[in-house]
Fold this sequence. Notes:
By secondary structure, this protein is of the alpha/beta class. Helix content is 27%, strand content 19%. It has two domains: 7-126 and 181-397, Glycosidases (TIM Barrel); 404-480, Immunoglobulin-like (Sandwich), CATH 2.60.40.1180. It has an eight-stranded parallel sheet. β3 (79-81) and β4 (89-95) form a beta hairpin.
Amino acid sequence: xxxxxxxxxxxxIFYQIFPDRxxxxxxxxxxxxxxxxxxxxxxxxxxxGYKGGDLWGVAERLDYIQDLGVTxxxxxxxxxxxxxxxxxxxxxxxxxPLLGGNEAFFELLEAAHDRNLKVVLDGVFxxxxxxxxxFNDILENGPHSPWLDxxxxxxxxxxxxxxxxxxxxxxxxxxxxxxxFNHDNPQAREYIMRIGEYWIEQGIDGWRLDVPFDVTTxxxxxxxxxxxxxxxxxxxxxxxxxxxxxxxxxxxxxDGVMNYLFTGPAIAFTAKDRVSMPLVESVSYTxxxxxxxxxxxxxxxxxxxxxxxxxxxTQLNLLSSHDIARALSVAGEDISSFLLATLLLLTFPGxxxxxxxxxxxxxxxxDPDCRRVFPKEEAWNQKVLETHKVLIALRQAHPALxxxxxxxxxxxxxxxxxxxxxxxxxxxxxVNTGETAVQVRLADxxxxxxxxxxxxxxxxxxxxxxxxxxxxxxxxxxLGDV
Length: 482
């Protein structure tokens, strides 16, 4: 059976939001659970403090999101939790009260859908938290708890907080705050499946699955996909897998993964030796060593050969996320490097994902700094914002940039040129990451037409389907028909 993925994802522009840091609502009065002391909004983010961003605040900024050209929002976890990032889930059926609770979420979901914006939630199903009812019952009742087999208990007594004593249960990466589910337990497994089904039934458009590679129970994600797709065949299932994800991308589990295999080469090629090594040596993607055009071409070809074309079109491509330093900071805050990487992002097969604030030039080092609040308008880099808008608009205007076949045309020193072809539409993209202008001769083009749609370069058609591109230093261009 041929692989099937959601068609809408192939045409989507995602916007990733870390809810605590995006926007506080202006509505009053707030529910009592939201009337609490918060960290200064403009202060540096901390590991444990709350800034108080909420889902009503997101709803109030949907005009901005839509004006950017975004068509889908991916939220990091929003379920009830005792931490600002909410990966420590307390209740999978309740939206966190500091985010406005279920009332705020359903209001936001309706408002987003009214604008044809899709909403994808973060599913944290490998582990729960110490505050999760069924694990908390074990902490209270010890071996008398009826939910012992939902987790991997190794001995007694449990030590959920005192690091000087053995935890006596399995936590994710030995983190006591994150007790791991026993996915072999039929009731725990069914509980998770029903969560997946419930929120799809409530109208969400998909799940991003946290650390799915750590769920090793045979057939777990196959069943999850089957049950979610039975409710909404167009639901998007995307896994957080940082490396070769072939195991999960055979058409029976995920529609795509967070494509860090694109992230690393894109930054290595555009930022080169500007990459701030302290920001990338400790994480599981590698935007180093510096790549020339040939090196980037080899990485891209290898990536595009990894998966079926249907899967390639629904990969979630990104430059930044809540788990890594922001691309602008990784590139040594060099704007030209960041914009060249953005050009690659928005012309590559798959769904581009923009991490909130990247589009206005928000820097950020490793966690928690990569989770800064969305800046006030006076701090926006207008050039970066306008570039995002122009490139997103071009992607939306030209189907070839979304689903067209990908072909490398030239890889000479620091200039990389490729095409996206869909039926009779041909788009050519050239990226020069070097310090001097270059000329690139392209022979045997599919057609002898096209002009510059983006960038400061130029094209001269020499006849016999041959084009001469002039690409200025540290710049890119897009060539095609209006």
